Amino acid sequence: MAAPDPQEFRQVVGLLPTGVTVVTAFTPDGPAGATASAVCSLSLSPMMMLVCLDRGSRTLEAVESADRFGINVLGLDQRAAAEVFATKLPLAEKWKAVDWQSHLDVPVISGCPAHIVCGLHEVIDGGDHVILTGDVIEVEAEPGEPLVYHGGLFRRLDPQES
User: Fold this and answer.
1) Residue 14's CB: how many other CB atoms inside 10 A?
2) Calpha distance 41→30 (Å, rounded)
3) Residues 23, 74: contact at Cβ < 8 Å?
4) Alpha carbon of residue 6 to chain centroid
5) CATH class of the domain at 20-150
6) What is the DSSP string of 24-54?
7) Neighbours of 5 (CB within 10 A)
8) What is the DSSP letter of 75?
């Protein structure tokens, strides 16, 4: 049996709807952040999160150095933030696109329906990505609809579904 084609694999996994987040940490020069959709809860007891970042990500370097990270769950009206944090623009330029503040030593993007602050627990090899696990320090939710990514498009949840 032949190995799956990488493009077909990418297309198939793109059918998994995901929340859209920006993972953040501080560098000595200021905040770093990257759009990430490979984010999920890992454990309830103890409370832990799992985040996957590209091996070459500047945000990965920042997380490892800072020993903590934030997960900003983007809202439906924050598509522009998702797009800019997915680029390789200089970090300072990315942060000009959003309002943010420092909270518990991580950058938190204003207006997000939720954010989670984690202490870095473990860094695990994951092919062309690195898997970060984090011990949850704080969770906070605000009213708002999350931004979802599915099939290569940003989407909203159907409010008619229950």
Assistant:
1) 15
2) 27
3) no
4) 23
5) mainly beta
6) EEEETTEEEEEEE--EEEEEETTEEEEEEEE
7) 10
8) B
DSSP characters for 59-84?
HHHHHHHHTEEEEEE-BGGGHHHHHH
Tokens of 52: 């996957």
Q: Pull the structure tokens for residue 141.
A: 């939710």
pLDDT attached to residue 161? 60
Tokens encoding 59: 């945000």
Q: Which two tokens stand for residue 5?
A: 């084609």
- For 20, the token pair is 């859209």
* Cα radius of gyration rounded to whole Å, the chain: 16
3 state DSSP class of 18: strand
pLDDT of residue 1: 86
* pTM attached to this predicted model: 0.93
Q: Across the 162 residues of the chain, what is the mean pLDDT of every consecutive 10-residue run?
A: 88 90 97 96 98 96 97 97 96 95 98 98 96 98 93 83 58
Q: Are strands 18-19 and 100-103 parallel, antiparallel or unpaired?
A: unpaired
pLDDT on residue 162: 55
The encoded tokens of residue 110 equal: 């204003």
